[in-house]
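Hey, can you fold this one?
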Amino acid sequence: MMESLFSRIDSKREDLVSFTQDLVRIPTINPPGEDYTRCAEFLGRRLAKSGFSLLYERAKDTPGDTDRYPRNNVIARFEGK
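Sure. Predicted structure:
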């Protein structure tokens, strides 16, 4: 089973590296918490392509959440069989 897992990861290496590079280019500097919305939307697009249903939720009234720097999150759900 582990060999199968590692083989699958190896086959997706380029995509995983590219995805990670694109993700870390989003400057979610904390504090103050820049670009959380952009980061959540980036992750959401990737998850939606894999069949996940999405909900974007702001973590209102949490430390650091402000109108200027909202703490937006993506919640993804994948229905099993």
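The chain has three helices and two strands. Let me know if you want another pass with a different chain boundary.
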